[in-house]
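Now read the record:
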Amino acid sequence: MIRQGDVFWLEAPDLGRRPVMVVTRTEAAAVLRRVVVAPLTRTVRKLRTEVRFELQPDDVSVASMDNLTTVPVGMLTDYSGASAEGHALCEALKALADCP
């Protein structure tokens, strides 16, 4: 089951294999063929639009809400076991839209 905040490996012809965080809400992800994801990167800029992850000890990554994209569910191949807190995701999305 795909849940909002979960990290999967994305296998995309144009992007290759990379980790992404699911942004689409859990209820919708269960029935949609495409979901919104945010790419993970080790380049931490300390922006309000980043959601921090520690995938392994001393291995910090962030999901960038500034680089959201929609992908077919079938391209999400391996679940990484990581998950974002709902509060951190909501705060980053508010920052993306410049909402108070």
Summary: Residues 6-96 form a domain with the SH3 type barrels. fold (CATH 2.30.30.110). The chain has two helices and seven strands. The beta strands are 6-12, 16-22, 34-41, 50-56, 59-64, 69-72, 76-83.
